[in-house]
Amino acid sequence: MNRYVALLRGINVGTAKPIAMADLRACIEALGHSNARTLLRSGNVVFDSAEPVDARSLETAIATATGVSAPVVLVDDARFRQIVAANPLAEVSVDPSRALVYFLSGPVAGGPADDTGRGRPSDTDLLPERLAFGEHAIYQWCPDGISQSKVPAKYFLSLGVTATGRNLRTVEKIVALLDTP
């Protein structure tokens, strides 16, 4: 049995793309997966599966069941923990509500580290904010608050892969769900 984390992007933001978490759990379990548990209303689902799972199948099933189309980033238990442990900004991210991990659906073509042409401010222009790149995630520290970030939202949409962010407080709660039988 394998454990997965499905992260839906852009649901339940204000009144946009509303999905009830009970419906999301039911959809996941209707696909034959088990032990589906959601966290908050932002599209975080931890579940178990004896069969391989792919994000596209989840996206299609969720859209069919709820009428809401939302990209899904699917991460297995081991990879999720690896991404969390690899956070290069962990020492400076003293407030978990002001630090983000953007989980990526795949590798960014050409790598994101030299991506100022996609609309990302230079490292100097970002200060005191920080952005760091991992193989499967982008890490962001926003000491002035996430709503004050100097990185435009369109940057994350320009990567050519799905990127969905969660603050470290939420990430820690997802890890706790992964630890729960």
Automatic annotation (TrEMBL):
Entries under Pfam families matching the protein: DUF1697
Protein name per UniProt: DUF1697 domain-containing protein
Highest taxon in the source lineage: Bacteria
Coiled coil: none
InterPro entries: DUF1697
Lineage, uppermost ranks: Bacteria, Bacillati, Actinomycetota, Actinomycetes, Micrococcales
Gene3D superfamilies, per database record: SP0830-like domains
